[in-house]
């Protein structure tokens, strides 16, 4: 990343503990508010419709707040009571993982079925055979995908319900409630200036992110789509998230990291969809029309992933402004 923004607190007299404490308290309040909204939405009747959408949005807020707190406790661990930070960070990582699994398991089938619907409405190709295959197979492909993905979706939903009803979850909520009013800090590091304490700590995830991005092939060098690189892209997405939260804590502008993160989210969703459609296409003894529809779906999602990767590079490596 070139020309990093100057930190908002770097030239002032703010203390590290004050700045970090304010950010963590804000995120703790956001977590508790999202939990209340989730509880209200989950208890609404009838299930589904607006209540389901509200519950999903509240769960998204829970994930976001949990990730921000956990990420900040990772980056700025030296400014906190380290034993407390390590314990809460681990529990929040567990919770955000459970919630993310539930979200992904529900979003993936919806994405695939929407893509099948879109593709099946495309004009037939000349010659009839390809277009006819696409017209005949989507319904069977959709049914196959639903059968294959429904068990994982049910397991993830059950795991989320079990987690949020557990004593472990309630202990996390209690810890976050305490955090909303009091942040356990290291008494020495917390009294240091932001520029001397928080800024150097925030530079660590930024450097890791820069190294991970530099290891990615540029669009001109990369093949159209390489699933073998999915792990590297996932790591960049994780590191960008940690970097973004560190910048948020410092009061910096995060518009560019947020835009880049959106491209990485689209890349990850498309890569997962491509993998799921490829797995479904390997099902033994499926009809040719079904296999064809899944092949078209797989190619479509590969193209979506490739486009998102190019978009990330355009955001992260903007073209020089003409003089």
What is the strand and helix layout of this fold?
Blueprint: H1 16-42, H2 49-75, H3 82-120, H4 129-136, H5 138-164, H6 167-179, H7 194-214, H8 230-249, H9 255-281, H10 288-316
Describe this structure in words.
The chain is mostly helical. It has a single domain, classed as CHAD domain. Helices cover 74% and strands 0% of the residues. It has ten helices and no strands. The protein has helices at residues 16-42, 49-75, 82-120, 129-136, 138-164, 167-179, 194-214, 230-249, 255-281, 288-316. α2 packs across α3 (82-120) and α9 runs antiparallel to α10 (288-316). The protein is globular, with a radius of gyration of 23 Å. Residues 1-7 and 125-134 have low confidence and may be disordered.
